[in-house]
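Session log. Operator J.P. requested a structure for one protein chain; no other inputs attached. Running the standard single-chain path with token output.
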Amino acid sequence: MPTGYQSAEKSLWEIVLALRGTITTSGSATGQTQRSALQSLAAAEVFDDIQSTFTSPTITIGDLFGHFTLFLNIDSTLAPTDIRFIVEFSNDGGTTWYEYRQGVFASLFYEDVDTASGLLVAFSGDNAGAEFRLRIVAVGTDVTNLFTVTADVEFFTSP
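Structure written below.
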């Protein structure tokens, strides 16, 4: 392979990603992992007597990335019952949403005892559609029994 070929290919890949949104990459287009920028899904969302459900903004990923990592920062105050995280994908522009039920995502929830002193966790999965979002459902919350959640996602390719 000519020396300049890989550099030109990497530049083209970066241009395509930049045109599709605020995406940064690491590595080259061939043989190394490509990563999106870390994207916020929920920033210190409080689940209480006012809010018990939350749906993140939709992130359009198209067919650029085959995998994702979900980062969760969960905390609770006093004794809410539990909180569930539901990853969803759409393949029709966001009209129809499908729950992602592969691996740990089949039943991703925590009880208060798990989150009482704060919990930082990350899970990876395969992309199953062109659009991505996260739904969060809290149970047993009120004015004093709270969950607080920050969630981020990063998309990536396999080398």
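Operator note: The first strand starts at residue 39 and ends at 47.
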